[in-house]
Specification:
The structure holds two protein chains of two kinds. Chain A is mainly α. Chain A has ten helices and no strands. The radius of gyration of chain A is 18 Å and the shape is globular. Chain B has a single domain, classed as Rossmann fold, CATH 3.40.50.300. Chain B has seven helices and eight strands; from the N terminus they run E-H-E-E-H-E-H-H-H-E-H-E-H-E-E. In chain B, strand 2 and strand 3 form a beta hairpin. In chain B, helix 5 (about 110-120) runs parallel beside helix 6. The chains are: A mainly alpha, B alpha/beta. The interface of A and B includes residues 76, 84 and 92 of A.
Chain lengths: ~220, ~190
């Protein structure tokens, strides 16, 4: 079986289970809505202030929601006896990481398709006018978050305090893509020329590529017992 | 261990039966020593060994929110087993799970889950099958089903190693039996 086929099988299985149970999606949606509402009510009706900090609030909601989803990434495997079944399959174990990674990216992007319009309403943002560049930033930010997050979720899978350890390990590692995503989102929303965003896009692309290669490469060592 | 033989492993709880099976299956790296599985060295040929070895843990590896048929299809896709039209349905029928093939595994009894886990091992030709407590939690009918599956593996020339506390036909008729005690593997004759 080719690597692509095994990755596709894992993505298909994870998304099918998610579509059936909606275990991650519903809790992510509820949590993200709560974060956005709390922030918007806490700040009050100060529209200029809301617009100035909207990108930061939006990405905080995405990161927190994503962490919630990551902790559930391997939950189905745990219920099915751990990663044993996947690890016993012949072939490169990196297929497990890639399958989980693409599943996470798909789920988080689906969530962002609700989150972006919701924040446009709450913070009075003109998202539709900048839809294309914002979609590009959302993809870059989501890939960066998922690449590192999926890896750390596997690393902490068998730890008792994983709910605490996962965000503790993950959030410091996410500072570069978070800076890139927040700054580029804000620049786009403020109507700045796209040329000003390039430096942040470069940072995110470099981060995504570097960590994709590193995490994929060392994944077999991370899950070996 | 001769090819096509059946071996039963016994020992007290915590004696190391599961650890041994996990090392043989390449899921666990040995802390010391060497070994060869199907003629392949344990250290450095894990991927090729996994292509020839099937392992079923006492919990099994099934996804509660997939149906029986979807679980088998996923296992086939993951292991690269070919599933021509009707193959999955035939396997489910031979395990007595035809009527439950479109039911989610969440609704299955312990016996049905065990049968489905074992059926997944029949998807591809294997040289060695490792079973950890295959009789645990099963009634007489379920145990007979496990014995039937073991006979199928042996008839196909597959070597079977069973770690079990319980006495079933497959453990009684095993060609070799070993007991793990104090970290040592001691032969105790044939069957238990």
């Amino acid at each position: 079986m080719s690597m692509t086929g095994r990755v596709a099988a894992i993505v298909w299985k994870d998304l099918l289970i998610e579509v059936r149970t909606k275990a991650s999606f519903h809790s992510m949606l509820f949590f993200a809505a709560l974060v956005l509402f709390v922030f918007s009510f806490a700040i009050g009706p100060d529209v200029p202030l809301l617009k100035r900090i909207a990108a930061g609030l939006l990405w905080i909601a995405i990161i927190f929601t994503g962490i919630l989803s990551l902790s559930r990434t391997y939950q189905a495997e745990e219920a099915a006896g751990g990663l044993e079944g996947l690890r016993m399959a012949p072939g490169d174990p990196r297929a497990i990481y890639l399958g989980k990674l693409f599943g996470n990216i798909a789920l988080l992007l689906a969530m962002e398709m609700i989150l972006f319009p919701a924040s446009a309403v709450l913070f009075q943002l003109e998202i539709a006018r900048h839809a294309l560049p914002l979609a590009g930033i959302a993809i870059l930010g989501t890939v960066g978050f998922s690449v590192v997050g999926t890896f750390y979720a596997a690393l902490t899978l068998n730890l008792r305090a994983r709910e605490i350890l996962l965000p503790l390990l993950l959030i410091p590692a996410l500072i570069p893509p978070l800076l890139g995503a927040v700054n580029s989102t804000q620049l786009i929303l403020d109507g700045n020329p796209l040329g000003e965003v390039v430096v942040w896009v470069r940072l995110m692309v470099a981060y995504d590529v570097t960590f994709f290669v590193v995490c994929t490469w060392i994944f077999p060592i991370a899950v070996e017992e | 261990m001769a090819a096509g033989s059946s071996v039963v492993l016994t020992g007290a709880n915590g004696s190391g039966k599961t650890t041994l099976l996990r090392i043989v299956s390449t899921l666990l790296r040995p802390s010391s020593g060497t070994g060869a599985i199907c003629g392949l060295p344990l250290d450095g040929a894990a991927d090729r060994i996994r292509g020839r070895v099937g392992y079923i843990s006492s919990r099994g590896t099934l996804y509660d929110d997939l149906t029986a048929s979807e679980n088998l299809r996923f296992a086939a896709r993951l292991t690269g087993a070919s599933t021509p039209d009707g193959r999955i349905e035939d396997l489910l029928a031979s395990a007595g799970l035809s009527r439950a093939q479109n039911q989610r595994v969440r609704t299955f009894s312990t016996g049905m889950r065990r049968r489905l886990s074992l059926t997944a091992l029949l998807l591809r030709p294997l040289e060695l099958v490792l079973m950890d407590e295959p009789y645990a939690g099963l009634d007489t009918e379920g145990m007979a089903m496990v014995d039937h599956m073991v006979r199928e593996f042996l008839n196909a020339g597959t070597t079977v190693i069973i770690a079990s506390h319980q006495d079933g036909e497959a453990t009684r008729q095993a060609t070799d039996a070993y007991r793990i005690e104090g970290g040592q593997l001691m032969p105790v004759g044939a069957g238990i």
